[in-house]
Predict the structure.
Amino acid sequence: MGQVLVTGAAGFIGAHLCRALLARGDEVIGLDNLNPYYDPALKRARLAALTGDAPRGAFAFHQLDLADHAAVLALMQANPGIDRVAHLGAQAGVRWSLEAPFAYTAANVTGHLSILEGIRRSEGRVRHTVYASTSSVYGSRSDGPFRETDRTDRPASLYAATKLADEMISSAYSDLYGLKLTGLRFFTVYGPWGRPDMAVWLFTEAMLQGRPIRLFNEGRMKRDFTFVDDIVAGVVAALDSPPAEPGHRIYNIGNSRPEQLLDLVAILEELLGVPACRELLPMQPGDVPATYADISAMERDFGWRPTTDLRTGLGRFVAWWRGHFG
């Protein structure tokens, strides 16, 4: 068995994916630039946990920037054993794209192109690539479920636009160079080792510190909250099932059960044993009122369905939080 290149290996989903691949015996090459979008200490802690648990020699980490295409190409050429790629590295966060737009084009467009060029130049050694897209490509909608065939030409944020660009570039590269590429549109992932800029972390931290939680659109939003273990199982299932012929595929990967944001807050109040002080705010530019995944294609092609309900998933996050922060 060859090696799996995982980009964003120190990130939330990337670190969980590395752990799952290592646990089943894969060799993993991890790539991440450890940027300061949120505290790099958390990213280093994820890596330390990975390194401590991995069999000797099974995990190698490289700190480099996806936008440095020469460095990415050199890494892939120096590791000819790479036969699969899980490209999760990106500049995340809808709201921050309003403040730092060039970070998004660098990481998400130039960085994505760097990986595709590395795959193209591998002379067929990379037999399948799975990359992360986002539910944000569906734009500002309150209906659902969202289907892969729905229109995606009205993204509500620059972040969404860059991920949509990744899908279009991937389609072109697949046609031009005969690559096997699978894009997964993630829907609101949460769980242990999560991101500090996302609702579950923000709310938990604020509630335990007695600070108000900020509820945009006065909390009248729905999200298809998807537990990270379910997401990882779907990524692995897709990675293990390349298309029979060269081509580019897109799938939704979500819980397919949108939850009211206020219901999430109520569950956290029970789990944490503290009340939430709610600060009701208007809708933030670039945000969307609802997300809702139709996952019938994932189920049909990979036999994948999520198994973790919101209360169970939040319980696991809270248990991790208390173990990690005391």
Q: What stands out?
A: The first strand starts at residue 3 and ends at 7. Residues 101-120 form the longest helix (20 residues). The mean pLDDT is 95.
